[in-house]
């Protein structure tokens, strides 16, 4: 099976966000996945594989802890309806900082051959 990985699309790119926000001087985190990499190009169902990620906080406030997940999708529109590989709880990321990690995921036995994002 061939797996291709792409970072999740930004909501703005999907056209599903109409931005109008008055922050009234408040500070907010702004988290993005700015790096996603797999050193492998194919996998079989049941394989355990490593994926490296970097999450960046472009905001002006710490994020607090949060949960994030990796998904496999048969198209470039990645949603929670796609196949969740795993999820993790991330400790707070300070404003302007990044957090890099390598996670191990298991390719589900239900996966059929094909291309995935």
What do you see in this structure?
- The protein has 117 residues and is mainly β.
- The protein has one helix and five strands.
- The chain has one helix spanning 11-14; strands spanning 31-37, 48-57, 66-72, 83-90, 98-106.
- The strands form two sheets. A three-stranded antiparallel sheet has the order 1-2-5, with no helix packed on it.
- Mean pLDDT is 83; it is low at 11-19.
Give the topology.
Elements: H1 11-14, E1 31-37, E2 48-57, E3 66-72, E4 83-90, E5 98-106
Antiparallel strand pairs: 1-2, 2-5, 3-4
Q: Averaged pLDDT, please? A: 83
**Could you give the order of strands across the largest sheet?**
1-2-5
Query: Number of DSSP helices?
Result: 1
Main pleated sheet: 3 strands, antiparallel
Give the SSE string.
HEEEEE
**Regions with little confidence, pLDDT below 50 for 5+ residues:** 11-19
CATH homologous superfamily name?
Immunoglobulins
Class per helix and strand makeup:
mainly beta
What is the general shape?
elongated
- Estimate percent helicity: under 10%
Number of domains: 1
- β-strand number: 5
Tell me the β content: 35-45%
CATH architecture: Sandwich
N-to-C CA distance: 12 Å
């Amino acid at each position: 099976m061939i797996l291709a990985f792409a970072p999740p699309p930004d909501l703005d790119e999907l056209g599903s966000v109409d931005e109008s926000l008055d922050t009234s001087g408040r500070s907010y985190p702004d988290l993005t996945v700015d790096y996603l990499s797999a050193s492998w190009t194919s996998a079989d169902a049941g394989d355990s594989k490593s994926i490296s990620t970097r999450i960046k906080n472009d905001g002006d406030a710490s994020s607090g802890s949060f949960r994030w997940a990796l998904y496999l999708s048969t198209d470039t529109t990645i949603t929670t309806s796609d196949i969740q590989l795993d999820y993790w709880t991330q400790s707070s990321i300070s404003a302007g900082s990044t957090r890099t990690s390598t996670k191990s995921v298991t390719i589900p036995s239900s996966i059929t051959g094909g291309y995935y994002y």
